[in-house]
């Protein structure tokens, strides 16, 4: 999980430096700073910028004093990709930062843009490490931390079962932990996690989604019915369907010929998932992705109270997604 690298732990420090490539942790750093700033001033102006948006001169414009001396949070993503001229401007700004402005730099780490890293550290940045969690032990610690943060008790076996069932995606792990805390009273144990996420191992919510986006409607429906019969929450199935369809949309719009490692970083997916989605996306079109997402959104509304029969809403969504996955036949 994200860890502080120095003793400064004030989210309103003039400079926060988040270093790493784990998108969930980077986003949480940003959210923490923005929440703290708006707790002091609800009208805080937040500017969340990609590196290409911060051109030479932009920083001076954003940090120039106003008549109302409003509080600002400036977030710069992928700071390692900033131009040399922009980095020079940031270094000059760090020598004399403005009191009402909080600057948040998100940097991937590594050799690229190291000069900016060094300058930020020299300026006394509040630094938070946000590394990719490649080891199962790290993901297990993350899950334990999620339950602690949510104020709930979970047994070691429950945490391990959750990691085994969900895999390496931190967003999915965090979402699963939050869902369990919302739905279950008392200590969360292995049996509870098993009821939500395992049942028959191959019939989890993610298997339902995988079979659907592959166009295998019959297998997806079989997995869906088994999941529901073993107590998997319907909202987890709509979430898995949405994630699977969005992943196809993201990968389809990515540059052709990009390496899996680069795609994994840019799209926020683990490399193994890039390979899987590449296989699943055959036959999909942009219109089909939009069509499938609409069907999933309707099902999501149904399972959250907008309809009378959650199972029927899910079956309709699964069939719609599977149909969208199949290439259209030309009319004769």
Overview of this structure, please?
The chain is α/β, with parallel strands linked by helices and 332 residues long. Helices cover 56% and strands 8% of the residues. The chain has 15 helices and six strands. It has helices at 23-40, 58-63, 84-94, 114-122, 136-149, 156-166, 170-183, 190-197, 205-213, 217-229, 234-252, 260-267, 271-280, 286-306, 310-325; strands at residues 3-4, 15-19, 45-49, 72-76, 101-107, 126-129. It has a six-stranded mixed beta sheet with strand order 1-6-2-5-4-3, sandwiched between helices.
State the end-to-end CA separation: 57 Å
Structural class: alpha/beta
Lateral strand order in the biggest sheet? 1-6-2-5-4-3
Number of strands: 6
Low-confidence stretches: 199-203
Continuous helix count: 15
Largest sheet: 6 strands, mixed
Helicity level:
55-70%
Taken as a percent bin, the fraction of beta residues is 5-15%
Labels describing this entry:
alpha/beta, 15 helices, 56% helix, globular
Brief synopsis:
Helix content is 56%, strand content 8%. The chain has 15 helices and 6 strands. It has helices spanning 23-40, 58-63, 84-94, 114-122, 136-149, 156-166, 170-183, 190-197, 205-213, 217-229, 234-252, 260-267, 271-280, 286-306, 310-325, and strands at 3-4, 15-19, 45-49, 72-76, 101-107, 126-129.
Secondary structure elements and pairings:
Elements: E1 3-4, E2 15-19, H1 23-40, E3 45-49, H2 58-63, E4 72-76, H3 84-94, E5 101-107, H4 114-122, E6 126-129, H5 136-149, H6 156-166, H7 170-183, H8 190-197, H9 205-213, H10 217-229, H11 234-252, H12 260-267, H13 271-280, H14 286-306, H15 310-325
Parallel strand pairs: 2-5, 2-6, 3-4, 4-5
Antiparallel strand pairs: 1-6
Helix pairs in contact: 3-4, 5-6, 5-7, 6-8, 9-10, 9-11, 9-15, 10-15, 11-13, 11-14, 11-15, 12-13, 14-15
